[in-house]
Design a protein that fits this description.
Layout lengths: L2 E3 L4 E4 L11 E5 L18 E8 L20 E11 L5 H14 L3
Parallel strand pairs: 3-5
Antiparallel strand pairs: 1-2, 2-3, 4-5
């Protein structure tokens, strides 16, 4: 998790691996979860699993109140979260290795 706005109840998720163009940022609306959301789930740097619906996000516009004037060229996807939990079972090294193998098998 790279950001959490208490004003908009929006979590920003991003993983810059492998470092290349084409990384995507997920803007996750957690308003439906506010009654059950734990602080641990919104800690910066925390890895989380999210299940929800894809939503529209205005391209190139940062919606976080802290950066309202900032333009962003990173592709984004919106998600209306239905469930979100801490990814305690995630092994980052294994995950990144899998991503590397997957990108090697893609055809341009």
């Amino acid at each position: 998790m790279t950001a959490y706005s208490t004003q908009t109840a929006e979590v920003t998720l991003r993983h810059d691996y492998p470092k290349a163009e084409g990384n995507v940022e997920a803007l996750v609306d957690v308003k439906l979860l506010l009654e059950t959301l734990k602080s641990r789930q919104t800690d910066i740097g925390q890895w989380v699993h999210v299940i929800g619906y894809l939503t529209f996000v205005e391209p190139g516009v940062v919606t976080d109140a802290q950066h309202s004037s900032k333009r962003n060229s990173t592709p984004r996807v919106g998600v209306q979260a239905l469930i979100m939990w801490v990814a305690q079972d995630l092994h980052l090294g294994t995950y990144e290795k899998t991503l590397s193998k997957d990108s090697n098998h893609r055809t341009p």
